[in-house]
Specification:
about 200 residues; alpha/beta; Rossmann fold; two-stranded antiparallel ribbon; 9 strands; Methyltransf_25; transferase; SAM-dependent methyltransferase
Length: about 200
């Protein structure tokens, strides 16, 4: 499950983190990738949706989107800020309440908050959410060497991208990059994979 100290930090500071993210430039580089590779208008799930910003953007582009986050406080913020989108509480690596499969799955900068020994299980679970012919977008903040813990106690696990790729059985890689995010200014790895079908 999401590291408990990380979850507590988000739960206690959801409003402040949300304000910070909404003040950042929008992640237009990511949005361009989603528009290029996602199934247009498809049934979409945002896993680890935070304050709902990206789910709301997807909904505005015509996607049928639902957001999930581990933090009840974030889900409350998302529901208040973007009332036209549906949000629920659930968390990786299990996502126990989710039984559907989706045309599009997005998991934006979430995996690194899990303990490193749960990354493979979480990636495998994300892959099970993708229906045949569907697309997974997954990204994470890159931490080199040892795990790091931010001053506010958020965990940033160090793990090899091969751990994620190995879980995406027979997936067709549409895009892979290690870049500095135009929105956050942080180094991120992005992987977009289509499930054959």
């Amino acid at each position: 499950m999401v590291d408990l100290k990380t979850e507590a930090a988000y739960e206690a500071n959801a409003e402040r983190y949300s304000e910070d993210w909404l003040e950042q430039p929008p992640p237009d580089d990511m949005y361009a990738l989603l528009m290029r590779h996602f199934v247009p208008g498809g049934k979409t799930v945002d896993v680890g949706c935070g304050n709902g910003r990206d789910a709301a953007w997807l909904a505005q582009q015509g996607f049928d989107v639902t957001g999930y986050d581990a933090s009840p406080a974030f889900v409350a913020v998302a529901r208040k800020t973007f009332p036209w989108v549906t949000f629920h509480v659930d968390r990786l690596p299990l996502m126990e309440s989710v039984t559907a499969q989706y045309d599009n799955v997005i998991c934006e900068t979430v995996l690194m908050h899990l303990p490193a020994d749960e990354i493979a299980q979480a990636a495998d679970r994300l892959w099970t959410l993708v229906r045949p012919g569907g697309v997974l977008y997954v990204s994470w903040r890159v931490t080199e060497g040892a795990d790091l813990r931010h001053d506010d106690c958020r965990l940033y696990s160090a793990f090899d991208s091969a751990v994620v790729r190995a879980a995406l059985h027979e997936g067709v890689v549409l895009h892979e990059e290690d870049v500095t995010s135009a929105s956050s200014g942080k180094r991120v790895c992005r992987l977009i994979v289509r499930r054959p079908g």
